[in-house]
Amino acid sequence: MGKGKNKAHEPKNGRPQRGANGHSSRQNHRRMEMKYENSDKVKFPVKLAMWDFDHCDPKRCSGKKLERLGLIKSLRVGQKFQGIVVSPNGKGVVCPDDLEVVEQHGASVVECSWARLEEVPFNKIGGKHERLLPYLVAANQVNYGRPWRLNCVEALAACFAIVGRMDWASELLSHFSWGMGFLELNKELLEIYQQCTDADSVKRAEEEWLQKLEKETQERKSQAKEEDIWMMGNINRRGGGWQSDESESGGSSGESESEGDKQCVEYDSLGNAICIDSINSRKSLSEESEDEENDLEENKEPVSYDSLGNLI
Ligand SMILES: C[S@@+](CC[C@H](N)C(=O)[O-])C[C@H]1O[C@@H](n2cnc3c(N)ncnc32)[C@H](O)[C@@H]1O
């Protein structure tokens, strides 16, 4: 059972839920907080906060992990936050000019599921400085390679990195095995954003980056097309060759395919013979699994996305 302050539903019997040790989840929450308060856990240099809607699996949730580490504070619906609120409801994007607000008041996120954003009462949370993040790619195990959809720790780290506090970004991410990968994956882009000033300049930099990605994608596509055409030519030659080979050798060797089998054969880009039927069944399988991945918010397999967030 999650312990977010903003969980939507009440326990079925109306009584508070009890943990395995017989204490209410509220008592356990407090005990957990005290455990971290009393230990000499790292104190983060600025305030970190989140509205937690308990949508996610606590074992995979980066916000919950930060909470367990005593690094982030949970906010209630109705509470506002003075610092930067990194949120899907943001209007402008995080920019280096936000440094002062971050250093004075910290940063916060909305811990919820991407699939359930419509359940989040954005009008009752947030603050004066609500921000989107510009294009960056997730490195976490759940959404690896996916642009824009960062998890909570990545979102906070991205905010710190863009305003120039790489030290805070690294410190936060260091608690996650994959964490430093986020800074490596986005190194070039983060450096570009860091050189901007206001939100407009970050948006321009983002736009240029996306155009560059789009151009590279188009180039790759036309290169692949050219290679395909080259291979097709090869196939045609070989297709014609079957008959002449046969006629040259004086007929069937006994190993050549029947007419029906010939229709079944295609060649891949390396010239290997493959069966169309198997391609078709693989295609429909991959289409199905793509659908499944789209349905699953937390797909485990690393996948790639193009500049517009489409699955490649
Ligand atoms: C939707 S939650 C998902 C959290 C995930 N379950 C986890 O384990 O951290 C991620 C939160 O990070 C922030 N975030 C991530 N990417 C963002 C972006 N591109 N723009 C604005 N906020 C973003 C938002 O606060 C968002 O609600």
Please explain how this structure is put together.
The protein is of the alpha/beta class and 312 residues long. It folds into 2 domains: 25-197, no CATH class; 208-295. It contains 10 helices and 8 strands. The protein has helices spanning 25-38, 62-68, 99-105, 152-162, 166-173, 179-185, 187-194, 199-248, 259-264, 276-295; strands spanning 48-52, 73-75, 84-86, 92-93, 107-111, 129-132, 265-267, 273-275. A 6-stranded parallel beta sheet has the order 2-1-5-3-6-4. Strands 7-8 form a two-stranded antiparallel ribbon. Strand 7 (265-267) and strand 8 (273-275) form a beta hairpin. The radius of gyration is 27 Å and the shape is globular. Mean pLDDT is 75; it is low at 10-39 and 238-301. Residues 1-30, 235-263, 281-312 are annotated as: Disordered. Pfam families: Fer4_RLI, Ribo_biogen_C.
Key traits:
6-stranded parallel sheet; 44% helix; globular; binds S-adenosylmethionine; alpha/beta; 312 residues; 10 helices; two-stranded antiparallel ribbon
Distance between the termini: 36 Å
Radius of gyration: 27 Å
**Secondary-structure element sequence?**
HEHEEEHEEHHHHHHEEH
Can you tell me the number of structural domains? 2
The portion of residues assigned to helices is: 40-55%
- Poorly predicted ranges: 10-39, 238-301
Mean pLDDT: 75
Order of adjacent strands in the largest pleated sheet: 2-1-5-3-6-4
Kindly name the structural category.
alpha/beta
Biggest sheet features: 6 strands, parallel
Instruction: Give the overall silhouette.
Output: globular
**How much of the sequence is in beta strands?**
5-15%
Number of helices: 10
DSSP E strands, number: 8
Small molecules bound? S-adenosylmethionine
